Amino acid sequence: MILPKIPSSEITPKSSYLNRRDFIKSTGLLAGSMLLSACGISSTSQTNPGAPTSNPSISLKTDELGSPVNKLEEIAGYNNFYEFSTDKESVAKLASGFSTNPWLVEVFGKVNNPGTYSVDDLEKRFKPEERIMRLRCVEAWSMVIPWVGFSLADLLSVVEPTSDAAYVRFETLYDPEVFPGQFDRRYPWPYQEGLRIDEAMHPLTTLATGLYGGELPAQNGGGIRLVVPWKYGFKSIKSITRIELVDYQPSTLWSSIAPNEYGFFANVNPEVDHPRWSQSTERRIGGFERIPTLPFNGYADQVDSLYQGMDLQKNY
Ligand SMILES: Nc1nc2c(c(=O)[nH]1)N[C@H]1C(S)=C(S)[C@@H](COP(=O)(O)O)O[C@H]1N2
Ligand SMILES: [Mo]
């Protein structure tokens, strides 16, 4: 398995305290739980940012609810990436020859300034920061991941969606030579996902270019992937090459295969079970006991206003 290099220069200035607080400040998201965390009440990772001895390795950090981040080996060793394999523990090995640098993303459609960007260019413009967020798979397991990324909204504001851009459509690279899974005709490749424009503009909606202070491993969706932490993991599409602003609700891979199991919105919701299993609890990778699943994966304070007036039992 290829693990990202973690230069100490990356770790030292990126104490979780400062970055989390910057993230909260920059997004204006001072929800109760985040406030607690920013005040240093809830977790082991809240070290004194000024003290030279307080540079804990990233593995000692926690999310704003106090849950420790998963180990790098877990995050980069247990992956859903069907383009490589449906066996989570084989993905890393199969992805080890997949070259993700340089990586280009085309942004087009209903925008004033379409363009093609390299990930290097995006990193220079948008200054990715550490964002520790939970990832909750629809299969009822979860992890806490220290992503490195920036808000999709930053990129969208540069390309300027036009007034008829109602949704954003994302597409993964299509190349069966590098993605052997794309020879499997049971799936409508390339993997596609979509967000409503207001979801896409939400500051928590992240384009990740790294994790654990290093590059984004191929198996986690390098060169660049989406992270929408309040939705089931399948919305967080990997290895994106095309972002299109459209005026219709785009088709998505999982909802086109099994619309009764996977909806377009796919907000984490402990009250709406998957037809084949309960969604009320989850297993945190690395642990054994089941923990309760939180509405919107614990981000309700930040995002539930996006869904006011919507029946979330029907719009699953
Ligand atoms: N292109 C692509 N993106 C994808 C997937 C995939 O198979 N192909 N799997 C999704 C699912 S089901 C999950 S849970 C997350 C897993 O991300 P991780 O391996 O980085 O934890 O990626 C999502 N993005
Ligand atoms: Mo998933």
Task: Explain this structure.
The protein contains 10 helices and 12 strands. It is an alpha+beta fold and 316 residues long. The protein has one domain (9-305): Oxidoreductase, molybdopterin-binding domain (Sulfite Oxidase, Chain A, domain 2), CATH 3.90.420. The longest helix has 12 residues, at 16-27. The radius of gyration is 19 Å and the shape is globular. Mean pLDDT is 87; it is low at 1-21 and 24-55. The ligand Nc1nc2c(c(=O)[nH]1)N[C@H]1C(S)=C(S)[C@@H](COP(=O)(O)O)O[C@H]1N2 binds next to loops.
Proportion of helical residues? 10-25%
Bound molecules: ligand MTE, molybdenum atom
Low-confidence stretches: 1-21, 24-55
State the secondary-structure class. Answer: alpha+beta
Give the SSE map:
Layout: H1 8-11, H2 16-27, H3 32-38, H4 72-75, H5 91-95, E1 104-109, E2 115-118, H6 119-126, E3 129-136, E4 141-151, H7 152-159, E5 167-172, E6 192-196, H8 197-201, E7 206-211, E8 214-215, E9 225-227, E10 240-246, H9 253-257, E11 281-284, E12 290-292, H10 300-303
Parallel strand pairs: 1-10, 4-11
Antiparallel strand pairs: 1-2, 3-4, 4-7, 5-6, 5-10, 7-8, 7-9, 11-12
In short:
By secondary structure, the protein is α+β, with helices and mostly antiparallel strands. Helix content is 20%, strand content 21%. Strand 3 (129-136) and strand 4 form a beta hairpin.
What are the defining features of this structure?
316 residues; alpha+beta; seven-stranded mixed sheet; five-stranded mixed sheet; disordered N terminus; binds the ligand Nc1nc2c(c(=O)[nH]1)N[C@H]1C(S)=C(S)[C@@H](COP(=O)(O)O)O[C@H]1N2; binds molybdenum atom
